[in-house]
Every structure is written in structure tokens, then in C-alpha cells.
Amino acid sequence: MTTALDSLPLLTGLSPTQRAAVAGVSTVETYAPGHRLFDEGGVADRCWVVLTGCVMIDHTTPGSGRVALQSLGHGELVGWSWAMPPHRWHFGATVVSPTRAVVVDAVRLRELADADPELGYRVALVMLETLVERLQTTRIRLLDLQRQP
């Protein structure tokens, strides 16, 4: 498992010991297109790091159904609602192409982070990096929409 984590740029800030700890609460799973990873409002008890394939983040809008917001691929983190109470998903996610991902048990990861503040700090940095990237992507999309006639 650590070899799968070692190859992910997202986790390069973790030491080998920290990656091993994360690997200890993780599995690798494969999903077929159409598989629903999670729905808005559900319990956020895991997260995924995509190894191959594509996952679409969506939001359910009354009258319109599910609206695609962003696609995530290799090396990207899917799901961060597990990090903050009340640990409920704010969006949904569906697999759109055959996908292989590291699935992290977020409950156990929070326990590891609580027990090891250095690991907790490193995980927080990964989350912040992901959040900044998503905000930048959203900003660019909004600017593009503003430019359209």
C-alpha cells in the first residue's frame, strides 16, 4: 500500500513513517462507471485519492437534479467533509470512468492525527493545498462564465 501512496505528489510532504500510518488505515478499491461514492448529507467517514480514472463532484439542485461541478483524476483527493464536524458530505460524487483509488478510513485517520500532532499538521496541509486548488479552479470557471455573452 505505501508504494501506491509514495507515488502521489499530494502526499510528498508526509514522511515515510507518516505514509505508512496512512497506508495502515487505507485500502485500494476499484469502481465501475456510475458507482456513487457518496451523497450530500451522508456521513463523511472516508476519503479517496484517485490512482486512475475519473470522479465527478456534483451538487443536487431542486428542479435540475445533479449538476456536475468538477472532475477529479490521478493524484487528486476526493472528499474533505470528513475533516470538519459535523462530518457530513456537502456534495456528492460519482465515478465516471473505470477508477482505482486509495480509500482512507477518515475516522481512523482523525484518530491518528489526534495522537500524532505532526501527522495531523501534515494532513491539514494536504487538505489546505487541495482546498486552495479547488478554489482557484472555481474562480477560473466563474471568470469564464462571466466572459460568456
TrEMBL record:
It comes from the Bacteria. SMART domains: cNMP. CDD domains: CAP_ED. Coiled coil: none annotated. InterPro entries: cNMP-bd_dom, cNMP-bd_dom_sf, RmlC-like_jellyroll. It holds the Pfam family cNMP_binding. Gene3D superfamilies: Jelly Rolls (2.60.120.10). Residues 10-79 form the Cyclic nucleotide-binding domain. This is Cyclic nucleotide-binding domain-containing protein. It comes from Lentzea waywayandensis. The lineage of its organism: Bacteria, Bacillati, Actinomycetota, Actinomycetes, Pseudonocardiales.
